[in-house]
Design a protein that fits this description.
Elements lengths: L1 H14 L26 E4 L2 E4 L9 E4 L4 E5 L14 E6 L3 E8 L10 E3 L6 E2 L5 E3 L5 E8 L4 E4 L6 H11 L5 E8 L5 E7 L9 E6 L6 H17 L5 H4 L1 E5 L4 H5 L22 H16 L4 E10 L3 E5 L10 H13 L6 E4 L6 H9 L2 E8 L4 H21 L7
Parallel strand pairs: 4-6, 14-15, 14-16, 16-19, 17-18
Antiparallel strand pairs: 1-2, 2-5, 3-4, 5-11, 6-10, 7-8, 7-11, 9-10, 12-13, 13-15, 17-19
Helix pairs in contact: 3-9, 7-9
């Protein structure tokens, strides 16, 4: 009897999907490296105060240059790092006054157009007449009117861990959505996830969505929000959430976000280069969760979408040499998005396996279609919303209409 039980357990173990380590042509060392932490404080010089004492803030130094000009110094968490200098701080004075504020990035260039807010929730871009970027783009000088009420200044809208958690809880009020944590970051912040779908989870083809591996990439997060909200809103009536399961991990790097990092997590690593050996705890926990969840319910993962931001809108896709469970999906999906948005060029950039990034991992681990959905830093917010909605609708249409062809 024990012999047969052992054989059964061995067979069961062999059939259970496991998280694998993967070889990528481009090797990247993602072992932990040290970072420099900001000193959280309120600076006070010349009657003007500036503070970085809130989640997602970044302000490394603040000083006065002359009677009307102040300088905010912005430094990265470590180096080498890509040129994405994130900044966020509050600034105020006892009396209403106009000042010039120089954003200084030693060794880097100004990238993100300043956004202003009175309370940290509703943002407006700074008037174009009130900003001057240095010829070599190493700094930018802002003209601000400040007073007793702190003015929030940030590279992009602040979507910190708490705010994203509130959105996840709001989404979980829908009967098709459950929410939880896939683990926790090094500093103890929850790695949120949402599980979307109706009825039995077992053997459902599955879509996985992730976002915010890189802290400043807020426009990608906004696109992901619009995309997910559209699935929840329309996936009931069109049958998508009955046919498919969707797993969403909206904030992969919560420590980096709340610490106001340029790019890395607390391990000093670009998390979207750690999809081969999972040295970083956040990546490891999320991929383990993906594999265990889909393995437990025998789900075939057919599509992995990773939302990011860069200088312009672009889709990074796997080329045709990587044949997934749903061949032809990407071409069909993007052609529908292009048509609905009235674009002349959808800006797709296909490639094979290169560095150990998520889109290649989705293919290697699951044989799923892997796509990095990039939104421009300055893409208008109403267009981001519309594009997210149209993209989600087109994805559902393609996956529903071709499910029988792909034997899903």
């Amino acid at each position: 009897m024990k012999k047969y039980l052992l054989i059964f357990l061995l067979i069961l173990s062999a059939c259970s999907p496991k998280l694998k380590r993967h070889k990528f042509p481009t090797k990247v060392d993602t072992t932990t490296r040290p970072i420099s932490y900001q000193e959280k404080k309120t600076f006070s010089v010349g009657g003007v105060m500036a503070s970085n004492d809130f989640p997602a803030a970044r302000l490394n130094d603040f000083k006065q240059l002359n009677d009307s000009t102040f300088e905010a110094t912005i430094l990265p968490e470590n180096e080498p790092i890509n040129p994405s200098p994130w900044y966020a701080f509050r600034i105020w004075s006892e009396e209403k006054e106009k000042i010039y504020l120089k954003l200084n990035y030693p060794g880097y260039q100004h990238r993100y157009y300043p956004k202003l807010s009175k309370e940290g929730d509703y943002w407006q871009p700074l008037d174009s007449m009130d900003i001057e970027v240095a010829d070599d783009t190493s700094s930018a000088t802002l003209k601000l009117t400040i007073g007793k009420q702190p003015l929030w200044v940030a590279a992009q809208e602040i979507e910190d861990h708490k705010r994203v958690g509130e959105w996840v809880n709001e989404m979980a009020q829908h009967r098709a959505v459950t929410a939880g944590a896939a683990g926790s970051s090094v500093q103890g912040r929850s790695l949120y996830f949402m599980d979307m779908g109706y009825r039995e989870k077992r053997k459902k083809p599955t879509v996985i969505i992730i976002s915010r591996q890189h802290p400043p990439e807020v426009t990608g997060f906004l696109a992901m929000k619009a995309f997910v909200e559209t699935i929840v809103k329309e996936g009931t009536d069109n049958g998508f959430l009955t046919k498919y399961r969707v797993l969403v991990y909206p904030m992969m790097n919560p420590d980096g976000v709340d610490l106001g990092h340029y790019r890395h997590n607390t391990g000093g690593i670009d998390m979207n280069r750690d999809w081969a050996f999972y040295h970083q705890p956040e990546v490891r926990q999320v991929v383990e969760h993906m594999v265990s969840q889909t393995g437990e319910y025998k789900n075939k993962v057919v599509l992995g979408l990773d939302f990011h931001s860069t200088y312009h809108d672009v889709y990074y896709t796997n080329d045709e040499s990587l044949r997934s469970w749903i061949p032809g999906f990407t071409k069909d999906w993007l052609s529908r998005v292009e048509k609905e948005l009235g674009l002349e060029d959808i800006n797709e950039q296909p490639s094979g396996l290169g560095a150990p990034v998520s889109k290649g991992w989705f293919y290697q681990q699951f044989r799923a279609e892997g796509i990095t959905y990039e939104i421009g830093d300055d893409t208008p917010r109403d267009f981001i919303q519309r594009k997210g909605e149209i993209s989600a609708r087109a994805m559902m249409e393609v996956l529903m209409s071709r499910a029988e062809e792909w034997r899903l």
